[in-house]
Every structure is written in C-alpha cells, then in structure tokens.
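Listing S7. Sequence submitted for prediction.
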Amino acid sequence: MVAWWLRAVSVFNVICVVAWVAWAWPRSAWLAIAGIALFMLAGRLWLGLQFWIMQTYKRRLGLSVAARGAVLKAWNAETQESARQFAWQIPWREWAVPDHLPANAQGRRGVVLVHGWLCNRAVWTQTMLQLRAQNIPYVAVSLPMLLHRIATARLTLDAAVRHLHTATGVAPLLVGHSMGGLVLRDWLRSQPPAGELVPHVVITIGSPHHGSPMAMCAMGTNVKEMRPGSRWLAQLRSDEAEGGSAFSRVRWHCVYSDCDNVVFPESTSQLANAETHLLAGYAHVQMLVAPQLWALIESQLPAPVRR
C-alpha cells in the first residue's frame, strides 16, 4: 500500500518538475534552474525544520540538547538515508530481499521485523541482508496500513509471528522501529500471558512509547494515537499494567537517540524497567543502519548455524 502511494508521489513529482521547466525555461533559464534547485532542496529543508523543532522543544522543557555539530551531521545523514529509503527502497524494492526460513530453522530463534509509519519492509533491507548472511530465520512484515488505526496491523503481525514460530518452534525476537514498537505492544496485549508466541525479548527503536510532539504535524488515525496524552496510549498502558500481562513477561530493550528528529524527547522512547541503549548522534531513520543496532540484535540471538 505504502509502496504504491510513494510511487504515485514520485511520478507526480516528475510531472511537476517537467511542467515547471516547460513553463519557466522560455521565460528564463535561471528561473527554471532555481525552481529545480528548490524542489531538490525541499526534502532537506523539511528535515531541517524537524531538527529545529526538536532542539527548540527540548530547550523549552529545560532538557539538554545535542551539540550543534552533531545535529548538523545527523541532518545531513538523515537527508541521504531518507532519500535512499523513500525514493528508492520503500517504493521500488519492497520485496527485493525475501523472508528467510532455512531448512534447518527448527529449534532456532528467528526475528520478526516491524517497520514504522509510512514505511514498509524494505526499510529493513540492511538488517535483512545481515540476518541472511548469518543464516538467521526472519520475517519482515509490510503492514496493511497508511493512516489506519494501529490495531489494523495486529492480524498481519500475528500471522508473521505464527509463520516464523511454525518454522522454528521457538517464540521469535521482535524488533520494531518507530510506530512499529507500538504495533508490537498492541499485539502483545492481545496475547495470553502464558502463550507460546510471547517473546522473551523485544527491541524497539525510536518508538513513541509516550507519544511524540511531531505527531501534531500530521493527520491520520494512527497519528492521533501517537500524540502525547492520547486515549489510545493511556488505554495501552492500562492494559499492560494488569497483573501477569504478556507485556510484563517480556525483557524490553529500548533504543533511542539524542538526535531523533521525529520521536523526542529521549524519554518518550523509553519504557519503565527496560534496558536502554543510546545511539548518540543518529537521526530517526538513520538509526536503522547503525552498527550498534545490529550488534544489539545479534547479541539476543544464538550463534549462527551454517547453511
């Protein structure tokens, strides 16, 4: 769903550029070039605005902020990574790297990868290649949602977990980026505490566990659910607080950054009693390619088995 939407956006952008050049060039070559330059810089400027909002918001709360140099470096890296993901990987390479369920998967812990808002499984391309190289079983989902309720993803995630569990006989390691972390928590509250699918470990990366102010800048039901103080988040916490819940059986790892331009401040990415991991200087999407993240995922899995 997201792939086709981003493809349509890409085609629309090309049409707009061609139309602009056709109109502006006869009037002034410089005008046409200036329009193209502004178009190419639009994404970088939008990301820059996000970093400015992040820093301003944290200062107003009296919180520490990342150094200017670190923010500028993260801005540049996020511009490149976002362009790669949203202009190429997500719209055109969704299934370029398939799920991996080797014949010798039985008895081995696999990984279920869950993407975030306006993404699909292609955002995990580097992680999937790393898992495949180690012959680790994995399933990366593409959630059937654009602006739908977060609960819309529950059936797709459940099917993925069951599929991997059938292949391995072991509850998988669950890894979620951004909204994907909330999708994991929503699925977990639907599971019986002693259920065989309940994982031992869950890793969330830049997930708005307590909401993010950037959710005020977009529309959609799932966006409203990710706003600080939302009813959905309050109900989720209430359900998880029940004695013996599946949530309480999990060992949580929360990865966060001081330069996350989408989910901030840092405390919103952290759950109580979770093991926290700071990726200093990494932006929101850029965190997915951090070597430290792969080291964390690998540390929660048994030694790789040769093919």
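Caption to Listing S7: primary sequence and predicted structure tokens for the chain studied. The CA atoms of residues 10 and 87 lie 7 Å apart. Residues 2-92 form one domain.
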